[in-house]
Write a structure and sequence with these properties.
It is built from three helices and eleven strands; from the N terminus they run E-E-H-E-E-E-E-H-E-H-E-E-E-E. By secondary structure, it is of the alpha+beta class. The protein has a single domain, classed as Cytidine Deaminase, domain 2. It has an eight-stranded mixed β-barrel with strand order 1-2-4-3-7-8-9-10. It starts with 9 loop residues before the first strand and ends with a strand.
Length: 182
């Protein structure tokens, strides 16, 4: 497969085609940069973007960092909220985008969701406060400066977890090799 340029987006879709995620190159690079800076500590944030007109594809344009009130260790992250509502309000009021879900990094480990990850996403999907009945969970695992993998899933208001796999999207550019965990 040919190496794409840095502007290449990555696309993921459920087996039945009901759910899709397009991870914009800018958001992808934001997350990978934050992971590199975090080193051996977890990091993460929220995903912001929009939906396609048919609401079947979430288009991620921005990935925030963890916030100044966040706490992290080698295998845990408590994402803070400092300044987050202001940022979300700016995107919402400008018609630029919405809260789409959560992302985090498992340093030098598989991008497998923990029980805590699953419970948090179920809570977000069920909460009217988030205005997001089908939030995306994106986990980066491994070494963001070398070999890493992505895990993408959607959680529905009814409690279902829907795994998304890569579409005909090429690997990430530069030295990085992307794989998607199955």
């Amino acid at each position: 497969m040919a190496m794409p340029n840095a502007a290449t987006d990555l696309c993921f879709r459920s087996k039945d085609g009901a759910f899709g995620v397009r991870l914009g190159a800018t958001a992808r690079d934001q997350m990978l940069g934050l992971c590199v800076r975090a080193g051996r500590l977890e990091t993460g944030g929220v995903l912001i973007g929009r939906y396609t007109a048919d609401r079947r594809m979430a288009e991620i344009e921005l990935a925030t960092g963890p916030g100044t009130d966040s706490r992290a260790g080698r295998s845990w992250l408590i994402r803070g909220v400092e300044g987050l509502q202001r940022l979300l309000d700016q995107w919402w009021s400008g018609g630029r985008g919405y809260y789409l879900g959560e992302w985090h990094f498992h340093p030098h480990a598989a991008p497998t969701p923990s029980g805590r990850d699953t419970r948090q996403m179920r809570s977000i999907a069920a909460s009217p406060e988030y205005h997001c009945p089908e939030p995306v969970l994106l986990i980066i695992g491994g070494d963001p400066a070398g070999d890493f993998a992505l895990h993408v899933e959607v959680h529905t208001r009814t409690g279902d977890r829907v795994r998304l796999g890569p579409t005909d999207s090429p690997p990430l550019p530069h030295r990085r090799r992307s794989s998607v965990s199955e």
